[in-house]
Amino acid sequence: MDFSTSARHRDIAVRMAALGRDLHDSGLAARDREGRFCTERWKMLASQRVHALTVPPAQGGAGYGALDLVYALEALSEHCEDTGLLFALAAHLCACVHPLAAFGDAALRERWLTAIVEEGRIGAHAITEAQAGSDISAMQCTATREGDGYRLHGEKRYITNAPVCDFIVVHARTGNSGGFLDYSAFVLDSRSVGVQISAKPHEKVGLRTTAMGDIRFDGTWVAASQRIGAEGSGGPIFQASMEWERSCLFAIYLGAMRRQLRRTWQHARTRVQFGQPLVAHQALAHRIADMHVRLESARLACLHAAWKLDEKLPAQDTAAIAKLLVSEASVKNGLDALHIHGASGVIEGDIERQLRNALPSTLFSGGNEVLKDQLLRQLGRVLQSSAGQAS
Q: Confidence class of residue 388 from pLDDT cuts 50, 70 and 90?
């Protein structure tokens, strides 16, 4: 097993770190208070085709795999403090671009991916509903067959990028068998007739510079050619999107935690209490060591999950473990960083903002309790099988 970083990934990290520094925004604190997405910096990302990293080269993208994307997002987020902007980017890449690239037919890829690359379009992944978050079986939004297309009816809630999106990847119920094949995925323009998007982004505790809103479909027409994959393949497509999110999107927290660790260490070296720097007090020094251990453990899990995706190996459990480790590390590291910074950590700035940005991470891409239930079921099957073989 080779744990070295390839020349390709070192180059990706160097280039993305430079871009992250270019994204510096002296007005970030004000935008965070206002809950405002930065359209100008999205255009900067699009001008460098970062919004198309996972688009195949045939459609003008970089053709990044999962491991490439982890290195890119980690480096970007280490040097760009606007985690909300990068969350919007990662959600767009993992849950909107990837399904189109991986499951769309040639005509769909040529039509939509080319436009995304050339026009800097941003996508929204419409899956969550008021009663259907992690429980896809509770989905009520429907796509009813009509002629050579479908009519969409229903409402999606808490959708990342909704207020600023140009296109939507939506999952809807196309069957009622009670099984995994009752759902299908579609792509459509956000300006389509019958699409209503909340104009004002939701107020939220963290990731405030990501625009989140609701989308309603009132008989919206989508042609069959806008369906991603076959009818009934929405379940597997959604599962693949979640594996990419849990493996790759969470790399933005790896970079933020590395910046957070560096600043916390520097503060502990220079802040003097009782005649000694904070780092000389073992109880506080151990908090910094714990931050380092959590970060490195979470990073290895992310890289492992992304590697499995690239190798076409089963990654559902590995991706869930990566998501659990990164999200829980991000919250705990945020609390430790704030504690060590003391009053300066509580006052507005990168330390308190990153703690707030970390809080939603245990909820999206599958709540942590839901993922632990899934892991336990799988673990039970494995242990039961091994017990049978041992006897």
A: low
Packed helices 251-270 and 350-358: angle between N→C axes, nearest 10 degrees: 140
CA distance 47 to 105: 26
Phi-psi region of 167 (alpha: psi -120 to 50; beta: other; left: phi over 0): beta
pTM of the model: 0.96
Task: Return the amino acid letter for 330.
Answer: S
Backbone angles phi, psi at 46, to 5 degrees: -65, -35
pLDDT above 70 for 390: no
**112: nearest Cα among 40, 193, 168:** 168
% of the chain exceeding 90 in pLDDT: 92
373 token code pair: 């239930």
Active site residues: 245
Q: For residue 167, list its beta bridge partners.
A: 123, 189
Q: Could you tell me which residue, 197 or 136, shows the higher pLDDT?
A: 197
> Model confidence over 100-130: pLDDT tens digits?
999 999 999 999 999 999 999 999 999 999 9
In the beta sheet, which residues pair with residue 212?
160
Token digits of residue 278:
């904070």
Q: What is the 3-state secondary structure (H, E, C) of the chain?
A: CCCCCCHHHHHHHHHHHHHHHHCCCCCHHHHHHHCCCCHHHHHHHHHCCHHHCCCCHHHCCCCCCHHHHHHHHHHHHHHCCCHHHHHHHHHHHHHHHHHHHHHCCHHHHHHHHHHHHHHCCCEEEECCECCECCCHHHCCCEEEEECCEEEEEEEEEEEECHHHCCEEEEEEECCCCCCCCCEEEEEEECCCCCEEECCCCCCCCCCCCCCEEEEEEEEEEEEHHHEECCCCCHHHHHHHHHHHHHHHHCHHHHHHHHHHHHHHHHHHHHCEECCEEHHHCHHHHHHHHHHHHHHHHHHHHHHHHHHHHHCCCCCHHHHHHHHHHHHHHHHHHHHHHHHHHCHHHHCCCHHHHHHHHHHHHHCCCCCHHHHHHHHHHHHHHHHHHHHHHHC
d(CA 67, CA 116): 22
CA 317 – CA 375 distance, rounded (Å): 6
Q: What is the pLDDT of residues 315-334, one digit of tens each?
A: 999 999 999 999 999 999 99
